[in-house]
Design brief:
Length: 699
């Protein structure tokens, strides 16, 4: 099984359109970005599909997947209408084409996913056993289609791995879990609860092993080798016998191992997670199964995070794995095509990722890139080093009441030579032009050199990135650290403090170095003391008083000056982008009077048709379906709503335009139509060839 398309609209914070070619889908993003919501949405979809209650799914979606080697299955819900297709042919029913198994491995303490999507099917299974017995129709052996596995299944997972004779499973138990020998396996059976299950394969298996409570591994293997059940079936029977609260046939399994008689509680949290993953992939899922793994690498040691990819590898031909993660180590082991960034419920367009990768790939990992993309701050400060960020943060915490108009986030580029190329890459690609980006250089020789290249002077205090190809720049600026009064030497961030603060750090660093100078050159010693002094000052600055940050006002005043300068520049731009109502005569005359290109967008669940003219003018056509909702970062929300009430009809999930509207901005047009915050050149598509509109700028 392989999911090729996944569109989810208006489930919690999600508005996602995902196209996939990989057997692993790795969702990365900050907390609240919507990663776990995708797992919940998929669970909700299949929970209803398995029960033939698809019309009860409370959101619109499209899911398309390859199944059985040669079928393409598609399920799409729009409002109250749902379509099933297999190889593009409409079907009335697709039960035989649904995943053989959905397996969720969840790391959180929250039970919402279990309660909504997995427990009901489990209880339906238990009730089905009893109904089957009462009706005399024979043994009920269908295993629930959705299995939910969390920390309570460690012992079941370990037992099945130990029973297996597969070479890779034996290696996993010995090398990853460190098990050398098994001393005993003890079962805690609840015979009083057997009646809840009547006659079934689950009960038959439990009856097979409850002849005594304690076994050696060889004794248990012998019994299992002579029974008619496979290990995959045994795993599921143990799962079913153990799961129902207060009705368990099996209360617990205690496995003692190695010379010091360890048990499962002696595993690290990471080892427990690894055995859950391995057992789930080995026993829980059939071919054409879907695995949903919520932070499978949580608590796993860095060296073992790399092993997760290796555990997946042998199962990927016939299974789809969707996982969420916070780990750069894990994502670094995955192919680029497997990675999908989320930001407040939306997928970050691959174009944005490619842009940021091209300008930051050598010094930022995927999570740092995602943090940059996801930042909601209107001002972004680009700094040379990590100490710059610490000192600026601490200073602003002390002084922020004096600067209510400043709201920024700091990002470290690890060197002055990276600031101008980074800014230039953002500028050339129109990367989130609604923000203000300021590069901050040390006021020293290296900073002077970089500050003199690629910038043009605005005034004596700051510069802006040089414009190219008549492309306006209202967003990209640079400054050097201002020197406090009386300072004529090179100025780094530490120079903004009173001298005695840095002297204290130097004294501490020198004292710490004494006794550790053997076999070190004078250059090594002085460099070491310098770096440690910087670290000490950085830590000490957390406890400094307001007056200790007085010279940082020079820096914040500069940032404020640039902010006000940019605001004045944007007033004219905003005015130029204002929407005009189009008279009927103009609407009729425009297409014939000027050359135009037909364009469209379906972003954020819209269906928008438009005409692109020269000079960046765009006419959105009557009949287009515009988004009702707008993202948090969309500017004039109230004005848009008032305007649309006059020129569009409100339907169940969209606005339908009654007349054409004209924009003088490519991005302004698409953001108005979608309620989003995106680059129009990237997201308007040319009807003739489905290429982004920016294609015409490259020709």
């Amino acid at each position: 099984m392989k999911i090729t398309k996944l569109n989810i609209y208006n489930y919690k914070n999600l508005n996602v359109e995902l196209v996939n070619t990989s057997s692993i889908i790795a969702l990365i993003g900050n907390n609240g970005s919507g990663k776990s919501n995708i797992l919940e949405a998929i669970s909700t979809i299949f929970f209803h599909l398995f029960q033939k209650k698809e019309k009860d799914i409370p959101f619109n979606f499209l899911i398309e997947y390859e199944f059985g080697g040669n079928q393409t299955v598609s399920v799409e819900k729009k409002n109250s209408t749902i379509h099933f297709k297999v190889n593009s042919n409409l079907r009335a029913d697709i039960q035989q084409f649904l995943p053989k198994q959905i397996v969720a491995l969840y790391s959180g303490e929250e039970n919402r996913l279990w309660n909504k999507s997995y427990e009901p099917l489990y209880m339906a299974y238990v009730n089905g056993i009893n109904k089957s017995e009462a009706s005399g129709l024979g043994e009920y052996i269908i295993v629930p289609k959705m299995l939910y596995i969390n920390k309570f299944y460690w012992h079941i997972s370990l037992l099945c791995l130990l029973i297996s004779d597969a070479p890779d499973t034996k290696t996993f138990c010995e090398e990853t879990l460190g098990i050398n020998k098994i001393n005993s396996i003890k079962f805690d059976f609840k015979t009083a609860n057997y009646a809840n299950y009547t006659n079934s394969s689950v009960k038959n298996f439990i009856n097979l092993i409850d002849k005594k409570s304690e076994y050696t591994l060889d004794e248990l293997k012998k019994i299992i080798s002579e029974c008619p059940f496979s290990l995959a079936e045994i795993y599921k029977y143990l799962y079913l016998a153990f799961t129902p609260d207060k009705k368990k046939m099996l209360e617990n399994i205690t496995i003692k191992y190695n010379d010091n008689n360890l048990d499962i509680e002696d595993f690290s949290e990471g080892e427990k997670k690894m055995l859950l993953i391995k057992a789930a992939l080995e026993f829980a899922g059939l071919e054409d199964s879907l695995f949903l793994l919520d932070e499978p690498d949580a608590h796993i040691h860095l060296s073992n995070k790399i092993q997760i990819k290796n555990v997946f590898k042998e199962y990927l031909d016939t299974r789809q794995v969707i996982l969420t993660t916070h780990s750069p180590t894990l994502t670094d082991t995955l192919d680029e095509e497997s990675l999908f960034m989320l930001n407040t419920g939306y997928l970050v367009h691959h174009k944005k990722q490619e842009i940021l990768e091209s300008v930051s790939g050598e010094f930022w990992n995927k999570f740092q890139q995602n943090a940059f993309i996801a930042s909601k701050k209107p001002i972004i400060l680009l700094l040379e080093g990590r100490h710059d960020r610490t000192h600026i943060h601490n200073a602003f915490e002390a002084l922020k009441n004096d600067y209510p108009k400043l709201d920024f986030q700091c990002f470290v580029l690890n060197g002055e030579s990276k600031i101008q190329p980074f800014l230039s890459g953002l500028y050339e690609s129109d990367f989130y032009t609604d923000k203000l980006y300021i590069g901050i250089y040390d006021n020293d020789g290296a900073g002077d050199k970089s500050f003199s290249n690629g910038f043009e002077k605005v005034n004596d205090n700051f510069k802006k990135l040089k414009e190219s190809n008549a492309k306006e720049n209202n967003s990209y600026f640079a400054i050097k650290l201002p020197k406090p009064t009386g300072i004529t030497c090179d100025c780094t961030i530490e120079t903004l403090y009173a001298l005695e603060k840095f002297e204290e750090a130097i004294q501490s660093a020198t004292h710490n170095a004494l006794g550790h100078l053997k076999n070190k050159s004078i250059d090594e010693i002085t460099k070491g003391i310098k770096e440690q002094a910087k670290n000490i000052l950085s830590v000490n600055s957390q406890d400094f008083k307001v007056e200790d940050f007085i010279n940082f006002r020079l820096l914040f005043n500069l940032i404020l000056e640039i902010t006000e300068h940019r605001s004045s520049l944007l007033k004219g731009v905003k005015k130029a982008e204002k929407i005009e109502r189009v008279p009927q005569s103009v609407r009729k005359a425009s297409p014939s009077a000027e050359k135009f290109i037909e364009i469209y967008t379906n972003r954020r669940n819209t269906e928008v048709n438009a005409l692109y003219y020269s000079e960046k003018k765009i006419t959105i056509k009557s009949g287009s379906k515009l988004s009702i909702n707008v993202v948090d970062s969309y500017g004039p929300k109230v004005e848009r709503s008032k305007e649309l009430k006059k020129i569009a009809d409100l339907q169940e999930n969209c606005w339908i335009l009654k007349e054409d509207i004209v924009f003088n901005s490519v991005s302004g047009a698409i953001n108005y139509a979608t309620g989003g915050n995106m680059n129009g050149w990237s997201h308007w598509l040319i009807k003739e060839n489905d290429k982004p509109l920016e294609f015409i700028r490259k020709k």
